[in-house]
Design brief:
The protein is built from 12 helices and 12 strands. The protein is an alpha/beta fold. It binds zinc ion. The site of zinc ion has 6 residues, from loops.
Amino acid sequence: MGFPQQRPRRTRQSDAWRRLVRETRLTPDALIYPLFVVPGRAVRHPVESMPGICQLSVDEAVQEAKVAAAAGVPAVLLFAAPARKDAQASEARDPRGLASQAIAAIKEACPELLVWADVCLCGATDHGHCGHITSSGVIDNDSSIRTLAEVALNYARAGADAVAPSDMMDGRVGAIRALLDAQGHAATPIVAYAAKYASSFYGPFREAAESAPAFGDRRSYQMDPANAREALHEVLLDLEEGADLVMVKPAGPYLDIIRQVRDAVRVPVVAYQVSGEFSLIKAAAARGWVDERAAILETLTGIRRAGADLIISYFAPEVARWLSA
Ligand SMILES: [Zn+2]
């Protein structure tokens, strides 16, 4: 039976009807806000390519975390850009390093706010890659995952509510789980950046996190944008190794991956609306080419509709305020 018996417009004719039959709902409960921490005090250094986003010293990160919590955002994701950078990623391995300080300070000021700590080596290495480099210039997987586990343990000890390895080395989730369990942190969840693509949309982030690789690129560890089956392979491996949540990154250009992952697993699926996705909207809105608020809500709704339970977004506090207004 089709037209004229079927008229789908009947349930679109008023806002009340549209609200009633809406299939996907955005809620502040699903949002996670990324923060970039730098050394110093009272530092709010604007990231030029991300209007409205700043690199923050620990004290300012605490203030920003309070703002996010007050807006109703349940979690922040912490990145550190320390001054000390060397081949060993010493700063990240230091139990009193910048990220650990920030985790402890935010947990003290906002005990109810969940603090997820990004675990990687690129912010603390002088070469800017996510793992250790051998003398022949290749990324050494197995020594890297030992260091990543050490870093994750530091963050768990500092009070992180979850550790989120973003390096894409093989076996790192298992290495982190084993060390956390052996050291009394069996209750700390792992949010695995399971399907992280080698994306052109990370450009602005690298300014914010000071993590641009000094040579080469990340295509030997991050995924080829053309691959979908491989994403499921990565996700299932991370789950076998003990991941509690799995992530797809970026979000917007990978909605099909989010859907396939959602259909394949039972754990929460997280999608990361990355810096380039943020900056494209900001830049177009600044020129009056798109309606900023409508574009933001549409992209986030699309990511949820694709199957993401949770979304990491630089728009999180603003959107949380809109949704609860
Ligand atoms: Zn990295």
